[in-house]
């Protein structure tokens, strides 16, 4: 490459002192060295601040910021505001990236001026066993990541069905935030899925990089698996209501595309709402009233009947 683009790596961290050294070391050892590493300490109560003093002395490319605890999206947005790079890599404080990932994705973006988001394979590993890699969060070998190469409707259709990648799979142009906005700080989970969706609705090209040397590494440990199921269902329901609004508000979609997307989203909404109803209790009416108000009576009744039927089968 004739000109080295600066890559800003944004690392939100909350009480991850035990994992942060592995994450920082994997960046220091990247084959692509023109980077800045922005660690945003989101109100940690452990020794993260003391740990970072060592790294700040070791490598001038590493920057450290502290904020009161505001959540993952806020910490990422803080990092974006302080970043200077042409490209941005998001990396949670317990995760890693392969040695050549940044180099290959910078080349990918440089060679495709119309591309805004390059993403790679994602691999998962059990805590303290980084050499044993799996394809899923459950540490199994099923392929789940679609290999997307498209604009607008193609990307939207895939993303309405499900998320397409772990957040550290992506390398994005910094200009993406001007067009799609920042991370939604009101979402306590699935904020990355929401962000990719907004990029797709903004007609920003997303493309999979097929190179076995470039991949994201996601650590699986007790904290990463500790989300309450009913909360996760609630988060997805909230996101699906946002998707419903985005479909209706999009002026670029054709009528037949709107119909297909609405069907896909409604089907998934019925499924997640029925799971939420079962998780909070089939006969806890006081908990169901807000759900019926939020989703509409028709969808709620269909979901409740599905929950009853599924409960009988199980």
Describe this structure in a few short sentences.
With 314 residues, this protein is an alpha/beta fold. The chain has helices at residues 20-28, 48-58, 72-81, 101-111, 152-161, 176-180, 191-201, 229-249, 255-280, 285-295, 297-313; strands spanning 7-13, 35-42, 62-67, 87-90, 96-97, 115-119, 121-126, 149-150, 170-173, 205-208, 215-220.
Descriptive report:
Keywords: Transferase. It comes from Pedobacter nyackensis. This is Glycosyl transferase family 2. InterPro entries: Glyco_trans_2-like (IPR001173), Nucleotide-diphossugar_trans (IPR029044). GO terms for molecular function: hexosyltransferase activity. There is one protein chain. The strands form two sheets. This protein has an eight-stranded mixed β-sheet with strand order 3-2-1-4-9-6-10-8, with helices on both faces. Strands 5-11-7 form a three-stranded mixed β-sheet. It folds into two domains: 214 residues, Spore Coat Polysaccharide Biosynthesis Protein SpsA, Chain A (Alpha-Beta Complex); 85 residues. The longest helix has 26 residues. Helix content is 45%, strand content 17%. Helix 2 links the parallel strand 2 and strand 3. By secondary structure, it is of the alpha/beta class.
